[in-house]
Amino acid sequence: MPRTSPAAQGSPGRGSGGRTLLILSLYQMLSNNRSSLFTVFFVLYVVEKDGVSVAAALTAFSAAYVAASLTGPFAGRLSDRMGRRRLLLIVSEAASLPFFVLVPFLGGFIAISAFFLIGETILSVGGTALQAYVADVTASRDRGRGYGFLSQVGALGSIAGVVAAGLVSEYIGIDAIFYLVGFFIAADLLLLVFALPESTVKPSMSRRPLREMKGVVVFSLATSVRAIGTGAVTAFIGAYAYFLGANYFEVSLIAVAGLGTTALLATKLGSKVDTLGEIRGYVYGTMTVGVALVIYVVSGAWPELVPARIIYSMGFALLSPAMLSWVSKMAPAGRTAEYLGVFSLVNSTLWSFGPLPGGLIQGWLGDAGLFAFAIITTAASVVAVYFLYWSSMPSVRPGSGVQGGGDGVVEAS
């Protein structure tokens, strides 16, 4: 199998680093099909199949993603220690496959939720390896563009996947979405085995205790306040569209509106992060998400969710590479995945936890209450990041712990 040096400092499409980034992006394209299906259809699936409440469905969704996010530091440390990003990706994909394709054969909400939780937790082991691999093969000055390119190519594939899921659910049955997930995982495995070179990152035998990673923890907490509310909205939006009169296929079209926006603009907005700086990119992107949340809360029919989804995706296409770029540049040499793993622990856990309070609030105050909750947490994150970091730009400061990683710091969405 050919090998690629992590020193390859190419922008997307340039040199061996650019070729590896393209393959990673194709992998993300197939993976996004899977994750988009779950965020759009999982809550709707258990509500329709088992007759559980929205609150119960959001709780199951939340539990699965919280469990998955808790693997972040362990998975990141393992990736840095082994220095073999590709191997972790292959193992996580292969081991998770049975837990998804068997869901339609299970009986009852508890069994379905348990298999979904186990499958997502296994998959998460490869998540930080993927993010770290992107940092390995992109130049520091192009880091935002690199993550944006990954997101853009991923969104292109997700469009086809979500449309297919909508058609299959409408005309064959919603059980079939799990067979589609199995197909995407199989395709990912073929790509990883036959096309992706193994990373040659030098294994790191040292590790930094959590107490010495205060900078990334504080940044993660400040940005992840937003994730509590947006996590609830992401899990709920498919059911919300259904309640507003959309059928399964029309639910998928709303998702496609957002994915199409990402597919068109993610690389361009990722490049804006490289010129604006990560903190400005995060603040502007989060404020844009806040505008979309206001549109959601005043929508009275499902077509009105389409422009809201477009604006929402524009915001995320700016804030997500800003966070990842900030954290990856903060990491000392040889510990990129570990830092991204700690960030994922905080950010993804709070995002995954969001559907639980979101479901309770929705049950208590209705749909408007859930969106108001998301708006409040989004505003709190903007305020926290502004006061903590705005006056201290540029993004890398003396003593930040950056060693050969470039000129900024990163966080993940």
Helix content: over 70%
Shape type: globular
Order of SSEs, N→C? EHHHHHHHHEHHHHHHH
Distance between the termini: 32 Å
What's the CATH superfamily, by name? MFS general substrate transporter like domains
Total of helices: 15
CATH class: Mainly Alpha
- Major β-sheet strand ordering: 1-2
Oligomerization state:
single chain
Describe this structure in words.
With 413 residues, the chain is mainly alpha-helical. The protein has a single domain (13-392), classed as Up-down Bundle (Growth Hormone, Chain: A). It has 15 helices and two strands. The protein has a two-stranded parallel ribbon. It is globular. It starts with a strand and ends in a 24-residue tail after the last helix. 60% of the residues are buried.
Short description:
The chain is mainly alpha-helical and 413 residues long.
Supply database-style keywords.
mainly alpha; Growth Hormone, Chain: A; two-stranded parallel sheet; 1% strand; disordered N terminus; disordered C terminus
Write the layout of secondary structure elements.
Elements: E1 3-4, H1 15-50, H2 54-69, H3 72-82, H4 85-101, H5 109-124, H6 127-136, H7 143-171, H8 176-194, E2 198-199, H9 214-243, H10 248-276, H11 278-298, H12 305-330, H13 336-353, H14 355-365, H15 367-389
Parallel strand pairs: 1-2
Helix pairs in contact: 1-2, 1-7, 1-8, 1-9, 2-5, 2-9, 2-13, 2-14, 3-6, 3-13, 4-5, 4-6, 4-8, 6-13, 7-10, 7-12, 9-10, 9-12, 9-13, 9-14, 9-15, 10-11, 10-12, 11-12, 11-15, 12-13, 14-15
